[in-house]
Amino acid sequence: MEESKVDLLVIGSGAAGLTTALTGALYGLSVCVLEHDDFIGGTSARSSGTVWVPDSHLMREAGISGDRPRAEAYLGSLTDDISPDAPWRVFLREAPAMLLDLERQAGIAFRPYLNAPDYRQDKPGAAPGGRPLEPLPFDGRELGAEFERLALPLPELMLLGGLMVTRGEAATLLKADRSLSSASLGLRLVGRYLRDRLRYRRGTRLVLGNALVARLLKAALDRHVRVLTGITVERLAKQDGRIVGAQCRQGTYSLLISASRGVVLAGGGFPANPALRAAQLPRPTPEYTPATSGCDGSSIALGLAAGGVLGPSGKDNALWFPSSVMRRPDGSVAVYPHIVLDRAKPGL
């Protein structure tokens, strides 16, 4: 059995896992990320990549000030008696600082969606925009050979089989037949995409969640974070009542990774696991999810086996949104989430 030692071990390579790994590396820790899929990014890589941070410096730069009290009212109304307020108050205090810190130290950049309303407009403190933050585009060529390990976005979020565009760009391109600037944008995007396809399986101009994961990955790799894919974590190693590492397997090889400072479970939830959906969500149990197939609750199982517990089952164990379901030409099922444009509409 091979053995390895790090300060911090992170299980899961989505936005949460890579942010954790990058933060550890920024503060001098040796870090290793484990991903059970063959590609990096999980559901984050196929998402919109939007993060929700009230009262950020980006909001203030856009002319929106005094958001903290309104955000407190909004989250307080949303959670009500469902959960204690201490966690979200910590979030409101620390999230803006986290955003600024990652921007200054590692170039993790966003811009505010000024016209993206909070989902629950019926709640006090809901904002018409500014709190959702969109990742800036990223050039996948900066990843070098690691670009091929980046998970693909949803096919339905790409044009011509591999060209990614933002929501704003998509709206602009719809006017290409009657607007010179829109047509010019289309020509620039398609021109670069065609050049990319001479060397790559898809376009290298990344946006949405793919851009967020790629930017985090590049910043982590630049700081010597190891990201291992195709790794199955069989159990968490425990010693004297604390978690000290993980027993892993890659093909026929066994690997014990010791972590002196801790293990972080960032493997996502359970949307791709029908049994957990049936156990943890209301009936009728949802049949479809746009999440990646690797989002199967395996990291939750690791935590439970190590002595963790889950809260009560119910509707709050999912992020719900309307979706379209269709059959792709290759026979696979496409689940297209109507998140940004539809989820905040009345009645949803």
What's the topology here?
Layout: E1 2-11, H1 15-26, E2 31-35, E3 51-52, H2 57-61, H3 67-79, H4 86-106, E4 110-112, E5 132-135, E6 138-139, E7 158-159, E8 163-164, H5 167-173, H6 180-196, E9 205-206, H7 208-222, E10 226-229, E11 232-239, E12 242-250, E13 253-265, H8 274-280, H9 298-305, E14 323-327, E15 333-337
Parallel strand pairs: 1-2, 1-13, 2-10
Antiparallel strand pairs: 3-5, 4-5, 6-9, 7-8, 11-12, 12-13, 14-15
Name the assembly state.
single chain
Estimate percent helicity. 25-40%
User: How far apart are the first and last residues' alpha carbons, in Å?
Assistant: 52 Å
Which range does the strand content fall in?
Answer: 15-25%
Gross morphology: globular
Characterize the main sheet.
6 strands, mixed
Helix/strand-derived category reads: alpha+beta
Identify the notable features of this structure and list them briefly:
alpha+beta, 348 residues, globular, 15 strands
Describe this structure in words.
The structure is a single chain. With 348 residues, the chain is an alpha+beta fold. The protein is 30% helix and 22% strand. β7 (158-159) and β8 form a beta hairpin. α1 runs parallel beside α7 (208-222). The longest helix is centred in the N-terminal third of the chain and has 21 residues, at 86-106. It is globular. The model has no long low-confidence stretch (mean pLDDT 91).
Concise summary:
The chain has 348 residues and is of the alpha+beta class.
